[in-house]
Amino acid sequence: MKASPKEIKIMQKMQPGTITLSGFLGNDKRTLNEIIEDDFRLLNALEFTPEEIADRMQYFTDKSWNAFTDEVLIDDIYQVETEVVRGKLPCPFGHVGIYRKAITKFTNTRKNISLSWTSLNIHLIRAHGFFEGKGSSFRLEPAELVNAIFDR
Predict the structure, then answer these.
(1) Strand partners for 107
(2) Nearest Cα to 92, choosing from 25, 27, 45?
(3) Parallel, antiparallel, or unpaired for β 72-74 and 98-108?
(4) 59, 90, 91, 101: which is closest to 77 by C-alpha?
(5) pTM, 2 dp
(6) Which of the 8 DSSP states describes residue 131?
(7) CB neighbour class for 68 (10 Å; exposed up to 12, middle 13-18, buried from 19)
(8) How far apart (Å, rounded) are the C-alpha atoms in residues 58 and 132?
């Protein structure tokens, strides 16, 4: 599928060195809309919405936000640490607003799954259903993410 002019403009903002050092698309050859549509189909099969996933990620980030780089145990299963660093990032889709640079490191101790995400990841998933392109530094595989953050 050919990318629209708007999509091309967004993808240009997602290139390495534009908003972040490593960019958002990794080595993924799909268009932005193909990445989002493929992940959305997978989420439908898993019976989750981007909003449910973003809400759950925000829950863990909020619970660990004020621990000041100390790890916290949440719900007796999840070890979470959020490191807040200096600076803010804009949404590459052009939303008004900026997002604090913070990395949440998460481990589901029952399933032995560890993941990391940023505040911008939460926004990109909630607002755009975008988990980043394959090979990007902060790509979150939807199935792995769902398996890790929901205890089922």
Answers:
(1) 79, 114
(2) 25
(3) unpaired
(4) 59
(5) 0.93
(6) -
(7) exposed
(8) 17
Q: Are 25 and 15 in contact (CB under 8 A)?
A: yes
Of 151, 150, 138, the C-alpha closest to 49 is 150
Burial of 64 (C-beta count, 10 Å sphere; 0-12/13-18/19+) = buried
Q: What is the DSSP letter of 51?
A: H
Q: What are the backbone dihedrals phi and psi of residue 35, each rounded to the nearest 5 degrees, phi first?
A: -60, -50
For helices 5-13 and 32-46, what crossing angle results, to 10°? 90
CA 147 – CA 152 distance, rounded (Å): 8
- The first and second tokens of residue 54, run together, are 């973003």
Are 16 and 49 in contact by the 8 Å Cβ rule? The answer is no
Torsion, Cα 121 127 129 135, to 10 degrees, reads: -30
Rounded-to-integer distance, Cα 53 and Cα 3, Å: 27
Residue-level pLDDT, tens digit, the chain, 152 residues: 678 889 999 999 999 999 999 999 999 999 999 999 999 999 999 999 999 999 999 999 999 988 876 899 999 999 999 998 888 999 999 988 899 999 999 999 999 999 999 999 999 999 999 999 999 999 999 999 999 999 87
